[in-house]
Write a structure and sequence with these properties.
The structure is a homodimer of 478-residue chains.
Chain A lengths: L3 H12 L4 E3 L5 H4 L12 E4 L3 H14 L2 E5 L17 E5 L6 E5 L4 E5 L4 H10 L2 E2 L12 H7 L6 H4 L2 H4 E7 L5 E4 L25 E8 L1 E2 L3 E9 L2 H14 L4 E8 H10 L13 E9 L7 H13 L5 E4 L3 H12 L1 H8 L1 E4 L2 E2 L5 H15 L4 E7 L4 E8 L7 H21 L15 H7 L2 H14 L17
Parallel strand pairs in A: 2-4, 3-4
Antiparallel strand pairs in A: 1-2, 5-6, 6-10, 7-11, 8-9, 8-10, 12-14, 12-15, 13-14, 13-18, 16-19, 17-19, 18-19
Helix pairs in contact in A: 1-3, 8-10, 9-12, 13-14
Protein name (chains A, B): FAD-binding oxidoreductase
Family (chains A, B): Belongs to the FAD-binding oxidoreductase/transferase type 4 family.
Keywords (chains A, B): FAD, Flavoprotein
């Protein structure tokens, strides 16, 4: 068995001395997750320069029995990219693998390396008059490899689908160091099992994504945005149904925030203006987009909202009169994570439930959390059209300075949310993944047969259990 | 071990005597594939009435070591639903499981049993003013379970994606008789491995799909259709690029036919009129659709085609002036399988290649087939925007009355097409699947590591090898 020093030397032999950070070096940013809840350690943090280097490092670690933790932009919500505190691991960073290998406006596809920052891909698409639709708060620093490994969601899922549906092909280094090349950017492929699907959303536990071929779309060239005040959550769903029946696939986003969620932002995020009275329980951003320049979207949006206002379905509506006004309204929505994080210790959730159950889910969950934990501030935001509502219970930092202090209360809240999610036929993670935060919850709400099949797939691909160990699945019961 | 008679009795005990066709009964339609190329035998054909019955039959067969061949509408092109001629098998028919369990225009989803005829699902969607976009020649008789098992394509993939992208959830009976319930119709789910993906496109070799939750879309309420005559294939791709840049996501279908393909239809399919001169090598159907009623699509389509005509990019264009005229043009396209089948013995292909390589692929393939097999009539049709071109070599029935007589020539042609497909970075099956017809070709063009991983997944899920044995993968080398 190689000593830590010898291992770091062997790694340097593969990637170059400059790209290995041994223990004692400046490893800290890579050992802790974005929320600061998990802290691990690593024999080395390795910055890889090519797929061949990834394969060589994986082979070395397979031979030595060293765990590998792939890490993208380290912006995940569930600790999936943090190395374990026990045992010997290395962290794999793919920042240097950030080339855009090819863009085809003809085929509407782009091929990128896993370390590409999401925003850079959006920009490269825009440069050829196309859209890469994945959009989320961390887009300025998250990496596409991590987005794919998490099957990330965001604000454009309603129209374009989650990350899985944007992936045309993948290049993956398997746990034995072989490279699976399924990178062909083909829309149609019925040639045997679609192996790449295994790796999307598996959080680096089955293989290391090194490159991807992704879908591009026609770029929206007209849009209209409204902020709507709602007397109750049901109104959002009734509005959705009307929009589906009238503007059809011009419906781009439908993002809800509870009044409390907006209050938290107003209190804690400087420079975010709230240009409307907070006298309703729910607020909704409705965005229509069209790929034909000059299309009038205001008129159909005004028509739907005007009728809804007249009937009392909605309480008020503001149509953005300019791009700047639209950006200011979007800014509120994009500040939810920052505002909540500053407001206290956040016990957050990522449930998706069938749309018909969304209103009752929201109501029951809030009532039960407040009954069990009266000191919690319960706020919510979510992607209404996807059934994905983030329920956040914010706890006072004085009483809950850290995860350990919050643990008993957090567990109680989690149980309530999981219980309501299951009762309404939903899933506990819609877009954030499982990582470390949610694996006991996943184990609690998932059918034993499904968990067993997931375990068998993990054992088939990674028999030594070296790839991102302990993520998604709890250690098997003995 | 149960005798055949005892087995038929046990099956009747599960599904009822009326729903078991024992050997000697009227099994014939279920023992032969649509093209009449494969002929198998079965201890029994069983018509199942519920998921519980499927599970009970699977458990019985698992205990007895009997192979199971799930069969949808039996319209597949590759023999994937035909039982083997050797050994003991039963054929599972799901015709009776044809209920639409739920439709939600709010969530844009529909939940159906696997035996539902595709057209019935399209109609159920239309009844609530929605679209289920999967559309293909056999839609009046194929079943959704088979469509999903094949990851079927069709003429709407360009806009809506292949079947995989239309599936929100699945219910599957696993080879041990347990039921995997992943039927939640949620758009977003990042809760562990997405197990349902395994079964989409696996042609019944890993599990038996019994129900599905599917996406619905806003229904197109305006459309414009043109038939365009092209001096060369490249022109289709240049036209596609212009359409993407102008009409964007209003582009619904882009279907190409070679002159020879249309001639075959004109010669062999009665009642199909060809209302244009056949003096160009390629013809293209271009359809724009919009979900807003009354949208003018003729003007932008005329603008693009007018400019292309002026520049000499295209040779001619006919815009359909009425729905009847549009239907008549679509009828030509929908007659390609029938016309080709009547014209002779068809060696057909289903390659997809990157769009940039499509024109060279078409040219090289035709040239090489004609050089090697001068008596072949080479015709083509395909889904230009997906890179999916069907190359058909039609052989004279007098010289090639059946598959055995055609075998040596077919193999030579297959090798040429496979070789060109691989040279252009494509795949041999875009939408028809592998089944029996293409498994040796798949083995030849697929990386050994990929094939090995497919085999290991098969062995993991179906260690006894009882589920649709011999399909997709050749028996493992010893």
């Amino acid at each position: 068995m190689l000593t830590d020093t010898a291992l770091a030397g062997s790694l340097a032999g593969i990637v170059g001395q400059a790209h290995v950070i041994a223990a004692g070096g400046d490893q800290e940013p890579y050992l802790v997750d974005w929320r600061g809840r998990y802290h691990g350690r690593a024999v080395a943090v390795v910055k890889l320069g090519s797929t061949a280097e990834v394969a060589a490092v994986v082979r070395l670690c397979a031979a030595e029995g060293i765990a590998l933790v792939p890490q993208g932009g380290n912006t995940g919500m569930c600790g999936a990219a943090t190395p374990p505190a026990e045992g010997r691991s290395i962290v794999l960073r793919l920042d240097r693998m950030n080339r855009i290998r090819a863009v085809s406006p003809l085929a509407n596809s782009i091929t990128v390396e896993a370390g590409c920052i999401l925003q850079r891909i959006q920009e490269a698409a825009a440069e050829v008059d196309r859209l890469f639709p994945l959009s989320l708060g961390a887009e300025g620093s998250c990496q596409i490899g991590g987005n794919i490994a998490t099957n990330a969601g965001g604000t454009a899922v309603l129209r374009y689908g989650p990350t899985r549906e944007l992936v045309l092909g993948l290049e993956v280094v398997l746990p034995d160091g072989t490279v699976l090349d399924r990178l062909q950017g083909l829309r149609k492929n019925a040639s045997g099992y679609d192996l790449k699907q295994l790796f999307i959303g598996s959080e680096g536990t089955l293989g290391i994504i090194t490159a991807a071929s992704l879908k591009l779309f026609a770029r929206p060239k007209a849009s209209a945005l409204a902020l709507v005040a709602l007397p109750e959550m049901e109104a959002a769903l009734r509005l959705l149904e009307r929009l589906r029946g009238t503007v059809g696939d011009r419906l781009g986003s439908l993002e809800a925030m509870s009044r409390g969620q907006i209050e938290v932002i107003a209190e804690h995020v400087p420079d975010v203006a709230i240009p409307f009275a907070l006298d309703c329980p729910w607020y909704l951003l409705v965005e229509l987009t069209d790929t034909l320049a000059g299309t009038d979207l205001r008129t159909p949006l005004e028509a739907v909202l005007g009728a809804a206002l007249e009937e009392g379905l909605i309480a008020d509506a503001i149509l953005a009169g300019s791009e700047a006004q639209a950006a200011a309204l979007w800014r509120i929505r994009h500040s939810v994570s920052e505002g909540s994080k500053r407001a206290g210790y956040v016990v957050s959730h990522d449930s998706a439930v069938p749309l018909e159950r969304q209103a009752v889910f929201v109501r029951n969950t809030e009532r039960r959390i407040l009954a069990a934990v009266p000191q919690a501030r319960v706020v919510m935001h979510g992607h209404i059209g996807d059934g994905n509502i983030h329920v956040l219970a914010i706890l006072d930092r004085d009483r809950t300075p850290d995860a350990a202090a919050a643990a008993p209360v957090a567990q109680r809240i989690n149980e309530i949310v999981d219980d309501e999610t299951a009762a309404q036929g939903g899933v506990i993670s819609a877009e954030h993944g499982i990582g470390l935060s949610n694996r006991d919850r996943l184990a609690r709400v998932t059918a034993p047969g499904d968990l067993d099949l997931m375990r068998r797939i993990k054992a088939l691909l990674d028999p030594q259990g070296l790839l991102n160990p302990g993520k998604i699945l709890l250690p098997a019961p003995r």
